Amino acid sequence: MANSASKTLLKGLSLSQLEDFVQRQGMQPYRARQLFHWMYRKNVPLIAEMTTLKKSVREFLETHAEINLLRLSHAITSEYEPAQKFLFELPDAERVESVYMEADNRRTICVSSQAGCALKCDFCATGLMGQIRNLTPGEIVDQVLWVERHTKKEATNVVMMGMGEPFLNYDAVIQAAELMSHPDGIAISKRKITISTSGIIPAILRFADEGQRFKLAISLNATTAEDRRRLMPITKKFTLAKLLDAARYYTERSGQRVTFEYVLLRHVNDSLLDAKRLRRLLANIPCKINLIPYNAVDLGYESSTEERIQQFVSELATFPAPVTVRRSQGRDIQAACGQLFVQRADQKARRRSRALSM
């Protein structure tokens, strides 16, 4: 029997790639559509459950292929909100996080695109991990499929705002998004799949030139170049001014608004002056602004008070585009990116330390 390292990973393959696979195995072409249906529509975790395939075909596939890429390492359910957080172990023992949230008739799954992150945003727990590796399309898609199986609910929205910078794993992220939106598979509307970037300008331009119909979100988080460089070191390479030019280019090419995400950090970027500058910066860009109260991590930052949040919102009252406050769900389950990973890693380190000292 083939070992797992020699098996073909089917999860993450498109229909045409599955057709290539079955033809190489000497199978009839229609087997590819059956595999696609069982993996992405029926969402079975085991080849043995693909009951429309002959037993001999299932046995062959079990020997030569693999469809289950994630193993649950830890999960937490919020006591106060319909939110759950999952820590998954990948085939190479690296770990990533996903979050499930319900609000306003939306069932949203936030997925990771990388294990770790190289960007080291000053307020983000994932930055503590450093860069580890990109996820494959299958590892990205399997987060959605696993959470849907676990919750027994189909997602209405997917946001690629978890661990990692999606546009530093561009090809895999787009292939995963295509699989999520395929009408014969998971079938989430492209306009319900949001890809968030910290500002990788070449990828934003590529996204626009390719005519991608997935939604684009840009993490802004500051209203001056100096403040953004301090909070988000990527600004040293891709300046704030050029990022806004890229966002404007995207809206012109796509005819779609861009969403600007702005994490509110107490006494850092939440003043009335910041709100005035934000309004001026984005005045000529078709957009939506998502204000996000910070989900505090032990990194020296605090969430804005409710009073300062309301003052900030009031200052944007005349902004000619939607402004929303996106309340972070699951504060009691460490729902901010990287929190659960770092917490579990700290617990393991403390256990190792105690063991060595005995």
Structural overview:
This protein is an alpha/beta fold and 358 residues long. It has 2 domains: 4-66, DNA polymerase, domain 1 (Orthogonal Bundle), CATH 1.10.150.530; 71-345, Aldolase class I (TIM Barrel, Alpha-Beta Barrel). Helix content is 36%, strand content 20%. The chain has 11 helices and 14 strands. It has helices at residues 15-24, 30-41, 55-64, 137-151, 170-181, 201-209, 225-231, 240-254, 272-282, 306-315, 339-357, and strands at 8-9, 65-66, 71-77, 83-89, 95-103, 106-110, 114-116, 131-134, 157-160, 193-197, 215-219, 258-264, 287-293, 323-325. Strand 13, helix 10 and strand 14 (323-325) form a beta-alpha-beta unit. Helix 6 (201-209) packs parallel to helix 8 (240-254). It starts with 7 loop residues before the first strand and ends with a helix.
Secondary structure layout:
Elements: E1 8-9, H1 15-24, H2 30-41, H3 55-64, E2 65-66, E3 71-77, E4 83-89, E5 95-103, E6 106-110, E7 114-116, E8 131-134, H4 137-151, E9 157-160, H5 170-181, E10 193-197, H6 201-209, E11 215-219, H7 225-231, H8 240-254, E12 258-264, H9 272-282, E13 287-293, H10 306-315, E14 323-325, H11 339-357
Parallel strand pairs: 1-2, 6-9, 9-10, 10-11, 11-12, 12-13, 13-14
Antiparallel strand pairs: 3-4, 4-5, 5-6, 7-8
